[in-house]
Amino acid sequence: MLARFACDPSRSRGRRTAEPPAPTRSDFQRDRDRIVHSTAFRRLVYKTQVFLNHEGDLFRTRMTHSLEVAQLGRSIARTLALNEDLVEAIALAHDLGHTPFGHAGQDALHDCMREHGGFEHNLQSLRVVDHLEQRYPAFDGLNLCFETREGILKHCARANAQLLEAQEPGGVGRRFLDGTQPSLEAQLCNLADEIAYNAHDIDDGVRSGLLTMEQLDGVPLFAQHRDAALAEHPALAGQGRRLLFETIRRMLSAQVYDVIDATRAAVGAAAPACADEARHAGPLVRFSAPMREAGTVLKRFLMRELYRHPQVMDTTERARRVVRMLFEAYRASPQEMPPDYADAPDLHRAVADYIAGMTDRFALREHARLGGEPLFDDA
């Protein structure tokens, strides 16, 4: 049973190209299935989250991150009576436009494209599902529902939103111009994304040796749940990994329950009668103020101690050099790309599309093939 403010697939704003309904699936289920079977989704398994693929088999990738976001999102959606299928579709697709090498690759590609429209990974995710996937005879892209596309476009610069609005009046770019919100399902995915990466970056940071349990003593959200785990299970004091897992599990649960309680209160106060009214009620899916503050402290810690760790910074700078070299090589010699890209009318955007679609390991192979200096000897 869906809440009155949830997105109902029978009332969807539809697809850009009309299609007959599927006999056994709702439109949002169909979107989810199309995303799972897409080429871009498969590539996520070899795209960096924080640590490059060759640095270890157990670190998160964009694929495993997306699955964790989907799991958290569905759990919360079920309790709030939101549409689980839509949440899952958005969660699985939200990183389809990410470049190889994580944010380092994105930043490098944006620099390369600065004079040619720039590069935004959220906009690229939309571009993937709207244009770049080529699987169907009647249209480019996956022809997803408006509600799924709306959720995929988490952020968008105003200039790009204006371009989207010109191409699709009243479409997915409009809310960035008029200050409204996406669906509650999309808002939920944004928070599930944050919950997931904060938790798994702690896990990966400790696994890598770049973070220690002692450093995490200074993070109240972590320390609170570690102390609770030790109080209930004193034997965990001598079991580092098991203590870490139990602490993260408790952190995740606390954040999930906080979102549920805070969102229920916000929705109750706003009392939207339907999904469209919820879009005009401001952000309703939220943390409580204390949990938001605790999460901010955790994010600042991770930025300072993990994302800006000298070892991570060194790796990401080398990754930026790979992307910059590839961009210049393809721009100078388009024939090095497949014909669909080499012959595109906008060469710079085609080069960005091609690089953004690469996995880490394919980018490194191309870098070596085109004469790049060795930057990752153990890759």
Number of helical stretches of at least 4 residues: 18
What summary fits the major beta sheet?
none
Proportion in helices: 55-70%
Could you give the count of β-strands? 0
Q: Kindly state the mean pLDDT as a whole number? A: 94
Number of domains: 2
**What is the structural class?**
mainly alpha
Strand content of the residues, in percent? Answer: under 5%
What features would you highlight for this structure?
379 residues; mainly alpha; Hypothetical protein af1432; 2 domains; 18 helices; globular
Question: How would you sum up this structure, described in words?
Answer:
- It holds the Pfam family HD_assoc.
- It comes from Aquincola agrisoli.
- The termini are far apart.
- The protein contains 18 helices and no strands.
- The model has no long low-confidence stretch (mean pLDDT 94).
- It is globular and about 65 Å long.
- It has helices at residues 27-36, 39-43, 62-80, 84-93, 102-112, 121-132, 146-152, 158-167, 175-178, 184-208, 220-232, 240-270, 275-279, 289-307, 310-332, 339-342, 347-356, 360-369.
- By secondary structure, the chain is mainly alpha-helical.
- The protein has two domains: 26-180 and 333-369, Hypothetical protein af1432 (Orthogonal Bundle); 184-310, Hypothetical protein af1432, CATH 1.10.3210.10.
- Helix 3 crosses helix 10.
